[in-house]
Structures are given as C-alpha cells and as structure tokens.
Amino acid sequence: MSNINTIRNFFYPESVLLIGASSKPKSIGYEILRGMIDFGYKGKIFVVNPKNEEILGIKCNKSIEEIEENISLAIILVPKQLVIDSLKSCAKKNIKNIVVITAGFREVGEEGAKLEQELLDIAKENEIRLVGPNCMGLINTDEDVKLNATFAAEVPHYAPISFLSQSGALAAAVLNTIKETGYTFGQFISIGNKADLNENDFLEYWHKDDKTKIITMYLESFESGRKFFELAKVITKDKPVLVLKAAKTKSGSRAASSHTGAMATQDDIVDIALKQSGCIRVNTIEEMFETAKAFLKFSNLKGNRLVILTNAGGPAILCVDEAEKNGFEIVKLSDETKNRLRKFLHPEASVNNPVDMLPNADAQTYRKAVQIISQDENVDAIISIFVEPVMIDAFEVIHQLAEEQRINKKPIVVVAFPLPQFWNRWRVEGIKDAYILKSVELASVVLKNLHEYHTSRSLIQNEIVSFDKSQKEKIEKLINNFKFNLKGKNFLTSLECNKILKTCQLPLIKSHFFKKRNELNSLSRKINYPCVLKISSRMLTHKSDFDGVIVNIQSRKNLIQSFDDLLKNLKKKRLINLIDEFEIQGFFDGDVEVIIGGYRDESFGPVVMFGAGGKFVETIKDKNLLLAPVNESIVIEMIKSSKIYPILSGYRNIKKTDIKKLAEIIVKVGNLLNEFGEIKEIDLNPVMIKGKKIKIVDYRIRIVESQLEKKQK
Ligand code: ADP
Ligand code: MG
C-alpha cells in the first residue's frame, strides 16, 4: 500500500480494535471505548480484555489471536510492559495500522528510548505503520466514519480542517474547551513521540486528501526540517498550512563558531523555513483555528486595503493601530462611496475611514453600509465592529452581517462586543455561518494571515542557478586537498578560503600570500599602496583579536616595519607557530561593511545570512536568513527587508549600492553550502561596499565538524 493509503486507513478504518479497554469508569481504557460508542463510530468495534465478558455492551475477547474478523486499526493502551507483546500479536494478525497511546517511552529516558526502538523495529519488520507512542489518539468527524478514538471530553463539529498535535495535553486542552470556542475540524491526530509516522507523513497525506482544505499543526520539533520545508513548498500552493511552533526560546545547544552560526537561533530558522515554504506561522491556538475558519469562509484576500466600520470610537482606533501594525492600509474611501453612505447614515456619523455610524446604527444600517463599502474598488477587506448599545438587537445585527459574509466577495470580519445575554442565545440558537471574533487584535492578525498566504507565494522560488560543471569539479578538488591539511582542525586558512572563493568568481579584494620575510622584499615592490597586512591561520581565525590585521599601510617602508612589528608581537605571544601564511591586501576605502554568511542547520540544512557587518555585527543583530539554495530575486527581497538597507539604498554622502551584485554573492554562498556537504560554515565579514564597488576582504570557512559536535550527536 502506498504511504497515502496507509495513512488514510488511520482515519477511515472499517474496524477498530481496542487493546486494553477497561471496565473501570474514568480510566483511559474505559473512556476511549465510551467515546467511540457515544460518538457513533460507523465501523465495527473490537475489544481485548481477558478479565471481562463485556464492557459497555461490547463483547470482550480474551486475546487478539481469538478474533477471527479482519482488523483495520488497532489502538494499544495496555501498560508499558505489555506493549511489545500486543504489537507482536497485532503483527501476527496482520494488522498494519496501529496507534500506541501508552506512555513511558523515549520521553522518560534511556530505558524508554530502548523500548521505543524495539517497538519501531517490530513495526518495520512487519510493515506496520505506527502512530505514537505517548499520544492521545485520533478523531475523524466525517459523517461516513464518526471515529473518536481519544479520551477527551468533547468532539468538534466537522469542517474540512485537519489538525495534528505533537502534544497530547495541548490537544486535550483544545478538545475540552470546544463547546466554548466552537473550533471545528474533521481529522485530528496526536503524534506523540513520532517513533514512526511524523508530521511530514500527515502533511503529505492531507495534501492528497479531498476532505482536507486547511492543514493545522501544533509542533514542538521537526523530525526533518528540510523535508518539511520541501513538502510544504509544494503543498501550500494548493492548501494553506498553519503552524503553531512552540519552544521559541534560544536553543543555545549548537556549538557555533562563526558569526552567522552564533547569531541565528533555531527559532529564526524555523521562522524563515515556514515563511519561505508558504506556511503561515501562528502564535496561539485561537489564531490558528480562527484563521483556518477564515480561510474556509472568505475568498482570497488579494490586497491590504482595509476599511473599519464601527458604532463606537475606541475599539475602532485600537483596530486602526493593530491593522497598521499588521501591514494594512486604512484606505481612503472614494467620494462616491462617501456620498452613498452619507445619504442614509446619521448626520453626525463619520464617513471617513474608520466609518463611525454612531450607537444607533441598527442591523439594516450595518448591512447596507457593508454592502456600499465593499463595492468601492479601493477596498480589499472590512472589519465591522459592533459594541452592543441597549436600544439595538445584537442578534439581528450579527445575523445580517453573517448573511453578508456569506454572499459578499470580499472578506468581512465581524468583531462583536455584545451583552452577556447574546452569548446565551447564541449557544442555543446559533447564527448560521457567522464568523465573529471577540477582539480587534485577532481580527487584524487573521486578515494578515489571509493576506500573507497569497503574498508569500512570491517568495517560493523556482529557478536555482548553480556553478557549472568545471567550476564544481575544481571546487571539489580543492576541498578534497584541503581536507588533508586540516591537522585535526576545522578551519581553512585564508589562502585556502581565497582559492575556493576565487574559483566561484566572487569579488575578492586582490591578495598576495607569503610565508617568509625574504619573500616580502620583492613582493613589497610589486604591490600598490595603501595596503593591509594580515595573518592567515586555521587556528587564529579572529585575526584582530591577536592584533593580526594592520590596515591602511601607506608605503613600502611602513609595510616592512609593520611586518617586523607583527612578527615580534607574534613571537612574544608565542603564536608564531600557529601562523600558516601572511596576506597582503589592497586597502579598500569602503562606506559600508556587511556580513554574508551561511551554515548548515542540523534539521533544516543549509542557511544563508546577510546583514550589517564589521565590528558591530553582533550588537546590531541584523540577521536576515534564507534556506539555501536561493535565487537572486528572493535574495533581493531579503536585502530590502534588512536593517542596513536604508543605508545601502543611498544615504547622505553614501552612494547607492549595486544590490544585484550583492545578491549574486549571497546566491553563490548558498550554492557552496548546498553543493558541498563538507562545508559547515562560511563567513564573509566584512564585505566592503562603496557605491557600485563591492569587495570581500575577510573570509572564513569551517569544513568539518568540531569534536564537540561529534560527541553531541
Ligand atoms: P578579523 O579576522 O578580525 O575579522 P578582518 O580581515 O575582518 O579581520 O579585518 C578587521 C577589520 O579591518 C575589518 O572589519 C575591516 O574594517 C578592516 N579591513 C580588513 N581588510 C581590509 C581591507 N582590505 N581594506 C580596508 N579595510 C579592511
Ligand atoms: Mg572579519
């Protein structure tokens, strides 16, 4: 069976076997069975429990072997020490889909991890696909199945939204409050420890599943970030993927020795990976489900021109702030629209944006105003705020707005602040298809998400241009040679870096390398002044820290003097044996220094970075990232969003930078990382800029993993 069909069988099983069902109310084994029966599962339920004849009217089998019928899905909830035996029995019975709810595996330590590995080995041997362990089961609210195999209190109403949660407890929290929140979804899976199936498998399945229109995920880690990224890039073209990713803290676990590596946190990488693959990163559960609902409810939001309609000033002003923060333009209405509004609104109402209709605006007024505003071609979306005054029937207002939401071609988000009675009536009667939010902040964020889904498509790149064949062969040869020189260290010398980067045809400052003082004599006659003298060492890669960079040397005499001073100093500090060569560069009188770098993230693979460079790189923290490889247009977008860009685009006496030329360097750094797995980190810092002239004056390449990293793995 293909992966897609195997996973489908989890959600559409013809029969379900509960291994470990219990007769004790309030136990998980009892609650799951009760949940399945109560929700009205359409298939056949089987139960294994050697101690009982029947539970809740379902006959108990003494063992798995005793069952004669075919089983499509087994759910294991026996105590930890019995899980392996249960799995083996399932294998014998040829059950291919299994959910292990039982906890006490990898999450509790080494012993548990071993047990989990055993579980996985048995599954692999028998071509079983496993969900869990340590999870809370699954749900499919589709009328054809009505499967609730969780121990949560409530089940949502159906919607073509699918929901995956890495945490069982978080999913339980969502399900337990579903009556109040009104969140809706069709398929739900809790993936727990992800011993076998993980978020990538479900992402792939839901892409192909017709009943899924929106994919939502709560994740704490990515099994393989790079795979997720590659899948999502394709899937988000067809369906929105909303991701709530926890653990936004600095990881700090990576032993990073480059600026680039040290500056980017794991969360920065997650952020860019999601953005660059067209996913929408949400910050709360509420934002996730309300955005999902909005995607179903409203057709595409193509622009960012917003109108706020209200019957009260305060919330509308707050709404303006929030909307602008989220990238919306509070658009000017056309004169025609204003005139049409004036004709029926209160004489003191404001027909500017926000349109304030004053408290006596009733349901018909709201509806008519929304209609007129939506007909204005300068308008992409409306937020309609309603604060209930005593003389107006809130139910009728929401009802009319809901009608309009259903038929209008533009998104109309309703933010309502009704009196408490409203919600009582709402719970009983409801209003068909109404999309109401309870805060202006959320309204802006939801609309931003809708808008971002369409704009982020442009970030997804098609064409990547890499090195040609002969270039690639040359680089490969260089790297292979240099690997033998490493002497157990991780960094290349400046000379080695220079050779690789030159092969890539990167704009390096002109350099001469020499080893001995007697070479300096003839060299010093050949070069132009002013120049710069530097040490080249695989050990001392932060050269200035060892006084290893002398800039702006004006004459031959100065150069020789500087070299002698440098040598003396190195000898005094007992560093001379760590020097591989010396480098003389032309002095570049630049206006701006930027950093271009990249490294290999364990989960997401090659990443490139760009930002303000030089001495202040770690204080300014202008870190702009992209997963590599990249093409020029996406890189130009990135440069434009950097903190340094206002300076690069021309500032006082600083001339405009050749952005395309700068982007080419970043593309090549991305290609180097992407094509050559041995390269772990690259730092070009600084890349010096003066108008159209761009020169790389400092380079650092780390080529193998440090001993520390090897140990960590
Ligand atoms: P480090 O290993 O300390 O980072 P760099 O080669 O980056 O050494 O030199 C330190 C600083 O010296 C740079 O940030 C830059 O300001 C200046 N510098 C280095 N090389 C040149 C050069 N060729 N022309 C002008 N300034 C330079
Ligand atoms: Mg430097």
Note down, in words, how this protein is organized:
This protein is of the alpha/beta class and 713 residues long. Helix content is 40%, strand content 20%. It is flat, with a radius of gyration of 32 Å.
Biggest sheet overview = 7 strands, mixed
Structural class: alpha/beta
Low-confidence stretches: 250-256, 706-713
How many strand segments?
A: 30
User: In what range is the share of β-strand residues?
Assistant: 15-25%
- N-end to C-end Cα span: 34 Å
State the shape: flat
Percent range of helical residues: 25-40%
Mean pLDDT: 92
Going across the major beta sheet, what is the strand order? 3-4-2-1-5-6-7
- Give the count of helical stretches: 26
Radius of gyration: 32 Å
Bound molecules: adenosine-5'-diphosphate, magnesium ion
Defining key terms:
alpha/beta, seven-stranded mixed beta sheet, 713 residues, binds magnesium ion, flat, single chain, 26 helices, 40% helix, disordered C terminus, binds adenosine-5'-diphosphate
What's the short story on this structure?
The protein is of the alpha/beta class. Helix content is 40%, strand content 20%. The two termini are 34 Å apart.
List the helices and strands and how they pair.
Blueprint lengths: L2 H9 L3 E5 L8 H12 L4 E5 L5 E2 L2 E4 L11 E4 L3 H13 L4 E4 L9 H16 L3 E3 L6 E3 L6 E3 L11 E5 L2 H9 L1 H4 L5 E4 L8 H10 L5 E6 L5 H11 L5 E5 L13 H5 L2 H11 L3 E3 L2 H13 L7 E6 L2 H13 L3 E2 L4 H10 L10 E2 L6 H13 L5 E7 L6 H14 L4 E6 L2 H10 L6 E2 L2 H16 L13 H17 L8 H10 L7 E4 L2 H10 L4 E6 L12 E5 L2 H17 L8 E6 L5 E10 L3 E8 L4 H4 L3 E4 L4 H9 L4 H4 L10 H17 L5 E10 L2 E4 L2 E4 L4 H6 L1
Helix pairs in contact: 1-7, 3-4, 7-8, 8-10, 11-17, 12-17, 13-14, 14-15, 18-19, 20-21, 23-25
The structure holds adenosine-5'-diphosphate and magnesium ion (MG).
Magnesium ion (MG) binds next to strand 28.
